[in-house]
Amino acid sequence: xxxxxxxxxxxxxxxxxxxxxxxxxxxxxxxxxxxxxxxxxxxxxxxxxxxxxxxxxxxxxxxxxxxxxxxxxxxxxx
Length: 78
Prior knowledge:
Blueprint lengths: L12 H8 L4 H9 L2 E6 L6 E6 L4 E7 L2 E6 L2 E3 L1
Antiparallel strand pairs: 1-2, 2-3, 3-4, 4-5
């Protein structure tokens, strides 16, 4: 198993996607929870989550099929 240092989910999104390719949403959430805090954000749309790394970088995201969709300031991107 490769240990992955996760500092900022948004800036590391391509490496995170590559590392987690083929994993289920539950497995991804569990993996993230070992590297920071994951909390569910109550919304009327898809289940949306907030990840905060050990150094305080935050990123909101949701799952769309096999993709993780990130929500940034004034932007949403895959």
